[in-house]
Structure formats: C-alpha cells, structure tokens
Fold each of these.
Amino acid sequence: MTTSFEVLTMGRVGVDIYPHQIGVGLEDVTSFGKYLGGSPTNVAVAAARLGRRTAVITRTGPDPFGRFIHQALRAFGVDDRFVSDVPGLPTPVTFCEIFPPDHFPLYFYRQPKAPDLEIRTDSLDFDAIAAADVFWVTGTGLCTEPSRSATMAALEARGEHGLSVLDLDYRPMFWESGDEAHRAVQAALPLVEVAIGNLDECEVAVRTRDPHAAAGALQQAGVELAVVKQGPAGVLGVRGDEWVVVPPLEVEVVNGLGAGDAFGGALCHGLLSSWDLEHVLRFANAAGALVAGRLACADAMPTALELDDLLGVSR
C-alpha cells in the first residue's frame, strides 16, 4: 500500500558548506559548517518542521556526503525512500560567502553532473506522486535530461488530486540560455496549479518583470495561484479574481539563502490548512524572515509555534 505524503518534493539536493566567519571572502575563511541543502529538499524539511508528512525524490553520490544526506533527512523527519545514489557521480557541495544584508554569492560544485539531474522516468513511483497532497518541482529540474523528462512525466501523472507547484527557481549557470529555460517552463506551467518566483524568474518564465503582468501571464498559462516575490515591495499572490500583497517583515539578515525555501514549506502548510490567501502569504513571509536571520537553511527551518509568536497569534 502506497504511503500518502502531504508534501512530496522532487529535485536538487546537496551539502551546503557555510562559513562561520560573516563578511569574509572564502579565501580568508578559517572554519565552516556542513548542512543539508538543495531547494526542494529544504522545502520538504520546512514542511516537516511544521508537522507535515513529507518526502523528497532525488539522487546523491555513493559517498560519505550521500550518506550524510540520508541521515539528515531522517533526522528532520523527511522520508528518504525515494533517494537513490548514482554510481560514478559525487554528491554536490555548495559553498557560499555571507555578506549581509543582501549579498550571498554561491559556488556550486556539481561536476561532471549532479546526481539529482539523473532522476529517470522509469524509476519514479507514480502512485506516490499521484497520491501526494502537494507535489513540488523546480525549474532547475527542467534544465537537462533525463531530469526534464522525469519532471514532466511526474507532473502529467498527477491527475486531479491535490496541488502541483512549480518553483520557477531559475539559476543561469544550470542552463544553456534563458530562451531554453523559458521554453521548458512554458511547457510545465499548464501542468501545475501553483507557480512561485521572484521578478528575475518571472522575466524568464513569462517575459515580464512587472509583478502584476507576470501574475496575469502565469494565470493565462494555466496556473490557479501565482505568487510573485517583489523584494522590498513584498509578495503578490493572485488566485482567481483575488489579488493580495503582503509586505515584508523586517529582520536583521544573517543569510538570505534559505528564506525562499522556508517560504515554500510554509506556503504548502498554509494551503493544506485551507487558510485564506492573505493568511497563507503572511505565514510564509514570516517563515522566510526567520530563516533569513539565521545562518543555515534546513537546520534553521522554523516551527509553527515560532511563526505564531512572530505574527502575534495566540494559542
């Protein structure tokens, strides 16, 4: 009997190597911390921290970092049954530099190819994918084969149950060109109910950075809920005829890299809770703000109690 997951994510995984020295270039850093990483993996962790049954579909290398990923997922309460290794490929590591409040350069070590881009259609558990209440994929999963075909096959298998989410997640270094990314995202949008992206990602996906025009274009492509992150202008959510803008929460930023993944996990939780759109976005915003004030990504994901306290919600 297939286990039914409330949130099932698919795509990138790796090990984040973050410096302990803030505001220092990597050439001068003397110590680092090791953390679970990869955007859809972090989203699964964030949702699990909020009490949801979660799992991730991804692949690692057959190495100590791959073993660490399995250990970390289990410790966070994320089911790792769909995580397999790829002989001959190393588990990716990602280094970052931390220059608050808004400069966090990333250095991806995913050569010769990241194992998570070797997810194959014939290895997918389509019953589990169809049964998930929320199925979350990313634009990076569309950047090359066989991951692109596997991601599309998974979305096509979803049927009428639950919500499928596309995190636009555009990272230029993973693509041949922005035009290629645009075509791939355009093919995926009709297969999802929810799309999320910042202004740069929306420009690639729908050829406009204007938030209202981008939300409208995402809807025209078939999306029911468009979420556009506008930076200091807040988050725009559009569902049907409802348009909601939620302002950002002020926080002393330590590392902004995990904020979007915390937002995603909290968004899943809010949608599964059937909250109104403004409540969902405020809750997700609060999750992103809390994580932006912390060093790590997966390890920093907040609990519901922490978010309620930040939002002044009484229990």
Amino acid sequence: MRGSALRSDYIRNLTILVTGSASAQFIGLALSPVFSRYYSPHEFGLLAVFMSILSALSVIVCLRYEFAIIPARTIEDAGALLQLSFKVTLITTLLALIGVTIFNLFLSTNADLSRWLWLLPVMTLANGLYQAMLNWANRHKNYKLISKYRIVNSIITNGIILAAALLGYISFGLLVGFVTGGICAMLVLYFNIQKSNAPFSFNNSNTKLMETARKYDVFPKVNLWQAIADMLLINGVIYFLTFFFSQVVVGLYGMTMRVLQAPFNLIGYSIGQIFLQEAAHQFHEGKNIQPLIKKSIIRTCVVALPIVIILVITGPYIFAFVFGEQWRESGEFARILAPWFFLDFIRTPISQVPVITGQQKRLFTLSIVGNLFMISSMILGGFWLNDYLMVVRIFTILQCLYLIYVIYWIYTKAALGKS
C-alpha cells in the first residue's frame, strides 16, 4: 500500500512539473520559427556567448550551498542554508560587477558584447536567488510554484523578444527578453513562496551561518568544482567555437542547443527534481536507491530515443523547413549532437546521486576526464583541421564514451554509499 502511494505521489508530482515545463517550452518552441526569421545567427551568437558566461556565474553564485538545502537533515539547517545562499549571492554579484567593469573598461574588444555584459551582475543576482528558492520549494514539494515560475519566465521572455522583433529592435530584443523574464519570474517565485505553506524568514545569526557553512563545506570544496567541470563541458564548446570560428558559427550552434535543450529538458528537468528529492529521502532511510536509478534510466531512454532517431535522420531538413534555409546547418549540428544529448539526458536526473551518497570527489575526477576529452576535440578539430563540423563530431564521439561510463559508475556505486 505504501509503495503504491509513493508511486501515486511520484506520478502526480511529475505531472505537475511536466505540465508547467511543457507549457513554458511550448511557448518558446512555437515562437522559435518566428524569431529565426527576424534574428540572424549573429544575434543568436551574441546571446549564446552571453548565456554561456551567465551559466558559468550561475554555477558559482551560491557556492553550491543551495544544493545542500534538499538533503539537509533538519529544517533548521535548510533555513540557514537558504539564508547563507542569499548572502553568498550578494557577494558574488558584487564581484561580478567589479569583473565586468574591469573587462569593459580595459580588456574588451567586442563592442556589442561589452554593452550587454553590464546586465550580467543583474542576472547573476536573479539566478542566485532563484536557485536557492527553487531548492527550498523542492524540499517542501511545492511543485506548483516551480511550474508557475517556469511559465511566467517563458511568457515574459518570449513576449518581449517577439515585441522587440515586430517593432524592429533586433539588436537587443533577445538579451533584454531573457534578462527581464528572469528577473520577473524570480520575483513571482519569491512572493508565491512567502504565501505558501513553507515561507522563509532570515533570523539566523552570523555565528549560526558560519557553523552551517562549515557543516556543509563539502559543497563549495568538492561539489562546486564538480559543477564547474560540468559547466565547462557544456559551455566549453561555445568558448572554443568563439575563439576558432566566427560569431555566425556560434549562433548556428547556439540555435541547435536552444532547440535541442527544449524537448530534452522538458521532462528531464522534472524527473531530476523529483528524483533528487526521493533519492535523498530513501538514502537517509538506509534504503538501496539502485532500483530508483534504474527506473529513471528506463524512463529517460523511452522518452529520448524517438527524438534522437528523428534528429539523426531528418535534422537538417527539419531545421531548414521550420526555421528557414539559413538555419539548415544548425540541423546538421543537431544530427551530430543527438547521441550526446541522448546520453546526457539519461545522466542528468541521476547526476546528483554522488552528492547524496558522498562520492563527489570521484565524480569530480571523472569530470576532469570529460573536460580533457572536450578540450582535445576542440583543439584537434579547430586548430589542426579548421572544420567546425569535425569539431562537433569528435566531441560527440568522445563524450558518448565518457557518459556511458559515468552512467554505469553512478548505478554500480549507488548501493555502496562510499567510493
């Protein structure tokens, strides 16, 4: 009876998250053919570079203390971790502002990018607060709030991008849309949490915050570096393409990532959020979480395989038909990258298992190997071969081998709780 109730809760919670994610993703996907005919690969390239820098800052903005909120053993610790995450976010935002100022005044050679880098500190603050509050809502199973956040973010972001395109403000429509949507949605999440059954207040002393920081210091000491390695694995391709090739190539690749991430993140994100909560709960009860991991792998395989097959067979034709002929090469990128997305989609929901079981150090070592594979493929394809499609082919092959091993390692080690 209890197992049946747990399955029912899982399905209900997953449905709530998937519905919100689907609504948010549908808005962006439905408008993408419109955006691709107003905004050129150059604008999308600028957005890709901006977002890759932002994602790097988002990884370090809370020093990963936000990810300790869910597995924290007491509600008091969770509250202190939330307050600590907010404080660290403010410090990180200030450092980001200083860094952007120095870069723009003394180092920048790209006037277009420099103009928009001033928005980075603002988005760093919004993302840090959002990530902390998201984990707080997840701990309390407020999945409706999470879904509402995603929908509001999508409506505002895509609405502004569309309005800017129709009014002819092409040069800043994409970036302003993403920034405004992120800020507004973060505020919506905050006010809704405060009206929910799990509002938060900051009444912990600095002494308590320091004690909590030391108690969970494995997150900034180990998990942070793991997250940086994962981030570089994704965004490193954009950094290298920017260095070796033109911003148009970056824009073509950025469009591919934007389109592919939508269906893969649609359910993968939702499965991951619920999986993390359930896995942490079962592990703390002393249960073997391997069966939970196996179910996650099977579910993600069933969801992702049809998408991958379609992309491999018809990727370039789909992109040319839906987004316009100038985006056909993005479809070629999609065809090549599809196997990597498939395996990464399987890995993503279970990627926090080593955090729960205390195996972050070993996972960090594996991530270094993955980054070495990425760097090798970029240098080989970009420097010696000077062929961006070959860059992506080599990258995909090496990453597929890497991800197969990582998935196998996570599954086999999950029952042990030790490295």
Amino acid sequence: MIWLTWRQHRKQAFYTLLGFAVLAAVMVPIGLSMRHTFADLGLADCVKPVALSEAATEACNAGFHRFTNQYGSLNLVAVLLITLPVLVGLFWGAPLVAREVEQGTHRFVWTQGVGRTRWALVKFGLVGASVLLLAVGYGLGMSWWAEPLTQSAHEGRFGLIVFDLQGVVPIGYTLFAVALGVFAGTVWKRMLPAMGITLAGFIGVRAAIAILARPHYQPARTQTFPIEGGGIPEGDRGDWVLSVGIRNADGTMVAEDTRIQCPPGGKGPDGRACGAELGLKPGAYNWELYQPADRFWLFQGIETGIFVALAVLLLYLAVRRVRRIA
C-alpha cells in the first residue's frame, strides 16, 4: 500500500519540490540583499532593547525609512506567499479521495484486500507526513526571509501578513488546508467542486480566526500618556496596537483612532487650549490597547494548535465518510 501510494503521487511530489526549489532560488538572493542592506544601514543596533540618544533615534528613523522605501514593495510578494498553504490543500488534499471516486478507481482498490480504513490511514498518513515536512521547511525559510521586514516595521512580527508567513503557524495552515481538501473530496466526490469548497473554506476560516479570535488569545494590555508634555512614547517596537484614542479624565472616549501631542501649555492660533476643538476637558489623555511583542510565540502556538485540531477533526470525519462511499 505504501509503494502504491508513492507510485500514485511521485510526479506530484516531484513537481512540488521543483516548485519550492524555484521559489528558493528567487527568494534567497532577495533575502540576502535585505539582510546586507539592513546591516549596512546600521539598523541592527536600532532594534536592540537599549535606550538611544536623540541623535541615534533620528539616525535610526532615517535608516528605517530608507529600508522601507527600498524593500516595502516586497509586502506584496508576502501576500502571494501566504497563499502557498491553500495551494497545497487544493492540489494535494482535494484530489486525494475525489479523484479516485470521480474516476471510479476506488472500486478496484477497495476490493483487492485493502480495507477502506487501512487505505485511508496509509494515504492520509503518508501525504500528511510529507506535507508536514514541507510546511516546516516553508515556515523556517519564510522566517529567515521576512526577518528584516519585520524588524523594520513598527508592529514587528505581529503584522497582519508577516505573522501568517513565519514561525510555526504555516504548519497548522498547511495541515488544515490538506485536511479540508480531503474532507471536501469525501463529500462532493468530484475534484473541481472539492477544490472550490477547499478554497472558500480555507479563506473563510483563516479570516475568521485572524480577525475575530487572534486579538483575544490573551487579555490585551493598556497604556496611557498625557496629551501635553514629553510627547507620544514610541513604546516597544513590535507591539501589536489594537486600538488607540483620546479619553477624558473620567475615561469617556472623546476621539477614536487618533492621538494628540501638545507642548506644555500649548495653544492654538485662536488662543484656545490645545485639543479644545475636540471637546477635551482637563486631565484628558491618550489611550492605547495593545498586545505585547513578547507574546508572539504564545500566539503562534495557540493559533497553530487551533488549526492542527481542526485538521485532526476533518481527517477523522473524512475516514468516517470513506467508509460510507458506495
């Protein structure tokens, strides 16, 4: 059975490895170029958790600006790269059962001394193990490639795109995509509908988890700072800022999604106190809700666990569906 599975999928495995080799040949030189530029601009010292002088801070800001201008367009490439897990689900998971049923070959396989459960476990196990190795390599490679981009961005590794691209979450995404494709193939039993359901389901679940669940994996923290005086603190680079606003002394939100910075005793051209046009009262302050940067790996582990659990559930349901296919 193992030999038969290899014979069936060896071309598929070859073209997948060839595609990843081509991707590596393109991405590795870009990654090396980013890292060299990052070092030449002296940005490695800027991301260290040490206090910087005013002159050093200005130099770092200028360096980050130059780096972003040169490589900021690569964020569009990152958008394309996060689609790779679903592509594996479409072309590895969806055809696994659907192609056999659509072509009728399942009748021959399941009547030659190989039970349906054994067939499903061997197929799903070998494909799952191969996909797991592929996903580990993909996650490690993307973590290396995206590191300069994440260090140059204020939100760091918590950025909407780069969080999905690196670490261990690509493993969960890929296993979920393949399991969803397998399950869809047991329900719709034709390749194109199974691939369509896999794509729609993957996008829907990923979006729901990222938007609705991820911000609440841990209780968010808050910080406040005055609207007058020392200015808006930069905070720790890499914090995921969920919401900002201006509140009055009693905690009432006056203005959302904005901050204000006034010099001590500052007044506008009309002589009114700074911020009076917003209806601010004495004691008003800037407010921020955020997830600390040091929770990155905790959030990665939680999200990976969610998608691995969904993958296990889908494969269990797929095995039960295989037993009922006529």
Amino acid sequence: MKQITTVFLLTTFLLLIGCQQKGKKVEVKTDEEKTVYAIGAMFGQRLSNLALTERELQILAQGLQDSAGGKKTQIEVAKYQREIQAFFKKKMSKNSEQIKKKGKDHLAKFLSEPGAKKTASGLAYKIIKEGQGASPKPTDVVEVHYHGTLIDGTVFDSSVERGKKVSFPLNRVIKGWTEGLQLTKVGGKIRLVIPSELAYGDNGAPPKIPGGATLIFDVELFSIKAAPKAAAPKVSLKPAAKKAAPKKKK
C-alpha cells in the first residue's frame, strides 16, 4: 500500500510536468492554487531521490495521462507491480550510492582542514569552541543549539534559525549525534560531519534528507542534565506509533 501511495504521489507531480510541457508556465495566483503548487513542490522533492532521466519522466507522465484520461493503457498495468517495486529499489539504491560518493569526498576534504579529526566509526569532527567541565554521557539530556545542512549547504533543520534551544536525551537521536556530542563540553561548540551510516542511512528522511546523505551539524552545548528514570520517547522525524496496552483477561 505504501509503495502504491508513493507511486501515485510521484506520478501526480509528473502529470503537472507533462501538462506544463505542452503550454506556458503556469503562474499561481489564489491561495488555493498556491496550496496545489506546494503539494507539487513536495512531490518534486520526493521524486529527486529516484534521479529519473528526462525520458523516464516523460514516459511516467504519459502513463498517468492515459489512465487518468480514460484511454487504453499501452500495457497491462497489474502485471508490473513486482517490477515497479524493483525499479524503485534499483533507482533509489543507485542514487544513494552516488550521494554517498560525494559525501565521502566532502568528508575527506573536511579532514584536510586544521583541527579536523575522525573517529573509529567514521564520524568526522572539529572543535570550534572549547567548553569547560563535563562531557555528556549517552543517557544524559543535553540542551543545545544546532544548524544542520547537506554538503551543498542546503539547510534541512536549524534550531538557530528558529531562535529556540532544544533539549533531548543524547541516546535518542542519530548515532553521529550520540557519539559526537560526547566529544565536547558544556559551553563548547563542535562541527560534525556525519556519514549516512551514522545518520539516516540509504532511506534518508524525505523530503529534506535524501538516502545516503552525509550531514553537517554545528552544535553548541549549553547544559547537561541526568535523564529522568522513565524512558523518554525517541527523537525522530517519524515518531514510532505507540503500542496498545494488552487487554486484561477476565
């Protein structure tokens, strides 16, 4: 079901592309049109993970136009469900590998800078400002400001831009953060270059973080507190659904 929904979202966006190719650029005017445009923009961000060729875009748009227009499709669509899943997997894997390669190159360049170091796990870092006192443990709650970008400088998340510090258990975030923050002290600031295997892996965190992406964080540590005894929820872009409590037997 998830695969079908994804395909539908992507092909809807491609229909907009196909229509635009036949005419002039559509200028959005009303709030409703702007909303529709925003939907298309979000689909486009997800589409980028497939790195489709221009011909593939045209073919995909043609399939949607034929089906949506009530025309007979050129193939029997139901027979291609397995191929669709294989196509998605192949395309995303290929794109992920290309992104990983660029990430490795960037990490190597970063390590040539004065003060840059690399840990056994593959995490690269540089202390921007020395702190004082203790370093956090994985079970501690840290209060920080952070600024996260892709290697091309695209900002995907930033408490600095929001103007509000955040607190969370250090062992409830991506591995690169858990390891990296233990390398600094209160009052300190660190730059982390986190390879995908220590971040969001091959799946990424769509639509802002593509699969295989190396992430860059500038993090300033303000305070450390012991975590409460009760287990804290994991910090994630997609929080896990709560499990229903088992019913008591009568």
